[in-house]
Amino acid sequence: MVVKVDEDTCIACGQCEEVCPVDGIKVNAVAVADESKCEDIGDCVEICPVDALSL
Questions:
Q1: Which domain holds residue 37?
Q2: Distance of CA 39 to the CA centre of its chain
């Protein structure tokens, strides 16, 4: 499973990218999870200030 991003809610703050221990998410206009790296750890989901991420 990979982190799901609600693109309409994401504010591209970058907190999820900073907290990901496996470099599995990148932020440009919105956050984008890398399916090959994401390990469903969930740190990004917990830190998102607008609840734009889910497992």
A1: 4-54
A2: 12
| Structural domains counted in the chain | 1
- H or E stretch covering 25: strand 25-27
Tell me the per-residue pLDDT of 13-42, one tens digit each, with 9 for 90 and over.
Answer: 999 999 999 999 999 999 999 999 999 899
Q: Output the domain CATH number for residue 16.
A: 3.30.70.20
Q: Output the six-digit token pair for 48.
A: 């998102």
How many other CB atoms are found less than 10 A from the CB of residue 20? 22
What's the pTM value of the predicted model, to 2 decimals?
0.91
Backbone angles phi, psi at 47, to 5 degrees: -90, -15
